[in-house]
Design a protein that fits this description.
heterodimer; A: 418 residues; mainly alpha; MetI-like fold; 2 domains; B: 366 residues; alpha+beta; Rossmann fold; OB fold (Dihydrolipoamide Acetyltransferase, E2P); six-stranded mixed β-sheet; 35% strand; globular
Chain lengths: 418, 366
């Protein structure tokens, strides 16, 4: 026995040359197979997820319109000190590049971009272009200033200068109701124009409220699901999952039918004599909460249920056998063990709620619209991709922050388990 | 006063019945007294009602009829958290989100015992179970045996008048289980605990208990000391369930007081100790332990001698088991110490088996 051990000892510690290479060769095929299996998903994620999101992030700072259409003017303007009017060279290049911009849709793009700086800029550009002489033999500073007096204002050129760099923070700032003042410092915009801070706060409040209601309603239901006998909990589970069987749009529309002033709820309450006149239940915050909670509740229940299913009822028994009142046993022993489910459900519902668009758009009033509404507005109506992307970026940041918090919580839970 | 408490049982089941579905009784007319300081094991196959009895005692089930008393107090309607009974659960049920120390403090906290005293008690019991340095670990960071000890400590730390254990050693491997059996037994002696222990493992029951109640079919078949249970089983269920046992169906020819003449197989007869309620002419089941059957008994002057065929050797290290055919039963086992076996013996040989009157019992026919 001892001799056998002594014999095998050196064999273990002895390094066999080429062993690593052998292992690599042996593992290579397995690795290739694994890669081949995940490749479709990886490619899909790349195309459908990583690229669009990077693109969105880029668009929130993208300022390349002027740079692309008028590269020379943009280059010279960035060197201009902004005190007096720019040099003749700038005027000359600008006139040339403005003429060239007629082809290839360049004029439309810079026009739209420059309108964000000054809403009359596009008109200025088209007016100037219309009377721009074909000749190159002229002093362009005088010609332009004679075409339109605004070309003799430094402010006009400053606007052009602001639009010249390849990237800008104007969209990101605007999404937070901030802007750069004429001195280049960040300042808040005029009070009557502030929108987005309020919208972000509103979005967080609605998403938080919906999450809280979902938790309060979902926790007892998940507990019931996890503790009922299988035959009964299966039936209950079907009711929980039922909402998934109809389209989001149909369910939202159904709430309008139910909650409107002549709807089922109001007529019932009035027939019962509980109210005199119809309650305003839809096209306001109440309607938004009703519809969103209804749609998001399963996303709270399912993670809670899966965690609760794994908690043995014996813990509560143990606690009562140790002298704890059943309520205390529930609160001190059961609830702490469900926290990972609470965290998962809460984060899931909150992240989904924060990006909700259709439901608030349909059942909410004007003061219930969330950030996504404005994202849709900028992409669909005004074609302002910069603003849409900036709002989207902040939503993404909020979601990522929440995810980090969740990750920390879950890690702590795992520490507890292990 | 002292005298009465010693005379009075600590736990008393009186005519307890339990049914879950209103049709079948899981526990039938249970009467059981447990004295203070006693270690009583409820032993039986699964579904025999032993765990239900324990759960009724703990308060997680209520008796359908009958009464359960703990001391002078009728327990039937008392909720579990007011019973002051310690319980060790099958899979320990240590709270996973609390450290060992917090787990042990929990029953003291629910009893509103001051922090200083509670801490002292926990320290003391941690020393007893030799897990002092693990106080701040989570249960999941402990081995099975350590978790078991913590579960035990948690059920003892508040000094309950009664400790219940529901198959607490089931999840441990054999060696650790045997070690823990002794450890629990020593704790019982050291602390003077009253323990009701549930198991389906008969060797565990025999090792640990003062008395064992053998359950089957919702009824206590026999309640006795381990020794009596093994040597004097009251019926063939107990004889089969406790230890190894050879059975031979037969018929009682005649009966004199506590012995009888039994015929079995093709014209075999033996004398045997007669079980209760058997009379001449009854069918019976002969029960004999493998270690009480003697091999090559010709010179031993035994009353009962038979010829049998040897079929198989089963080597078990310290002893051998011989599978023989006797009176048509080819599952008749004989246990022989290795050094007493004749080396020439081989499968197929005719051998002679014998036993004493005192070692064979005629029990009820099943």
């Amino acid at each position: 026995m001892t001799s056998a051990l002594a014999m095998s000892q050196p064999a273990i510690s002895e390094k066999v040359p080429g062993l690593k290479a052998q292992l690599r060769r042996a593992e290579r095929l397995r690795k290739l197979k694994a890669i081949a299996l995940v490749a479709p998903l990886a490619i899909f994620l790349m195309i459908a997820f990583v690229i669009p999101i990077s693109n969105m992030l880029w668009r929130s700072v993208d300022n390349s319109e002027v740079m692309q259409v008028m590269p020379e003017t943009a280059r010279l303007l960035t060197e201009w000190d902004g005190k007096d009017l720019p040099s003749e060279a700038v005027f000359s290049l600008f006139a040339q590049e403005l003429r060239d911009s007629r082809t290839g849709g360049g004029l439309g793009r810079i026009g739209r971009r420059l309108n964000y700086e000054d809403p009359t800029f596009r008109t200025l550009l088209t007016q100037t272009l219309r009377v721009l002489p074909a000749t190159t033999e002229t002093t362009w500073s005088e010609t332009l200033q004679s075409i339109h007096p605004r070309w003799s204002e430094t402010e006009t050129w400053l606007a052009l200068q602001r639009a010249a760099p390849a990237t800008t923070d104007r969209y990101l700032l605007a999404a937070l109701d901030l802007k750069r003042g004429s001195d280049g410092n960040i300042e808040r915009i005029e009070e009557n124009q502030r929108v987005y801070q309020q919208v972000f706060v509103r979005t967080l409040v609605i998403a938080g409220g919906v999450t809280l209601i979902c938790l309060l309603m979902g926790f007892p239901l998940a507990y019931l699901l996890a503790t009922l006998p299988t035959s009964q909990s299966n039936i209950l589970m079907i009711f929980v999952l039922l909402p998934f069987w109809t389209s989001l749009l149909v369910r939202t529309a159904a709430w309008i039918v139910l909650l409107q002033s002549g709807g089922l709820v109001n007529t019932t309450l009035m027939t019962l004599g509980l109210i005199e006149s119809p309650l305003q239940l839809v096209f306001n915050r109440i309607g938004v909460f009703f519809a969103m909670v209804h749609i998001l509740l399963p996303f709270m229940i399912l993670p809670l249920y899966s965690v609760m299913k794994g908690i043995s009822p014996v813990y509560q028994r143990a606690a009562t056998s140790l002298g704890a009142h059943p309520f205390a046993a529930f609160w001190q022993i059961y609830v702490p063990q469900t926290l990972s489910g609470v965290a998962a459900g809460t984060i899931l519902v909150f992240i989904m709620a924060i990006g909700y668009y259709i439901t608030p758009a349909l059942v909410g009033g004007p003061s219930d619209q969330m950030v996504s509404y404005f994202v849709a507005y900028y992409t669909n109506t005004t074609n302002n991709w910069g603003m849409a992307a900036a709002l989207g970026t902040f939503l993404l940041i909020a979601t990522l922050l929440l995810y980090l918090v969740y990750h920390k919580l879950v890690n702590q839970k795992q520490l507890i388990r292990n | 006063m002292q005298l009465t408490t010693e005379m009075e049982p600590l736990v008393r089941f009186s005519g307890v019945q339990k049914t879950y579905d209103g049709e079948h009784l899981v526990v039938k007319d249970l009467n059981l007294n447990i004295k203070k300081g006693e270690f009583v094991t409820l032993l039986g196959p699964s579904g025999s009602g032993k765990t239900t009895c324990l759960m009724m005692l703990a308060g997680f089930e209520t008796p359908t009829s009958g009464d359960i008393f703990l001391g002078q107090e009728r327990l039937n309607t008392l909720p579990p958290h007011k019973r002051n009974i310690g319980m060790v659960f099958q899979n320990y049920a240590l709270f996973p989100h609390m450290s060992v120390e917090e787990n042990l403090l929990y029953p003291l906290k629910t009893r509103k015992i001051s922090k200083a005293i509670a801490k002292e008690k926990v320290d003391k019991i941690l020393t007893t179970i030799k897990l002092k340095e693990f106080a701040h670990r989570r249960p999941s960071q402990l081995s099975g045996g350590q978790q078991q000890r913590v579960a035990l400590a948690r059920a003892l730390v508040f000094e309950p008048q009664l400790v219940l254990m529901d198959e607490p050693l089931g999840a441990l491997d054999k060696q650790l289980r045997e070690h823990m059996q002794l450890e629990i037994k020593h704790l019982h002696q050291q602390l003077g605990l009253t323990v009701v222990f549930v198991t389906h493992d008969q060797s565990e029951a025999l090792t640990m208990s003062d008395r064992v109640a053998v359950f089957n079919d919702g009824v206590i078949q026999q309640i006795d000391t381990p020794n009596n249970l093994y040597e004097y089983p009251a019926n063939s269920f107990v004889a089969q369930f406790i230890g190894e046992n050879n059975t031979l169906p037969g018929k009682i020819q005649s009966k004199e007081q506590d012995t009888c003449q039994v015929s079995f197989g093709d014209g075999f007869t033996t004398r045997a100790l007669a079980g209760n309620n058997l009379k001449s002419g009854d069918k019976t089941q002969l029960s004999i332990r493998p270690e009480r059957v003697r091999l090559n008994s010709g010179h031993m002057n035994l009353e009962n001698q038979f010829n049998a065929t040897l079929h198989e050797f089963i080597y078990l290290g310290d002893h051998l088991r011989l599978r023989c055919e006797l009176a048509g039963n080819d599952q008749f086992y004989v246990k022989v110490p290795v050094n007493e076996l004749c080396p020439n013996l081989k499968a197929g040989d005719r051998i002679q088996l014998g036993w004493s009157d005192q070692d064979v019992r005629a029990l009820d026919y099943q």
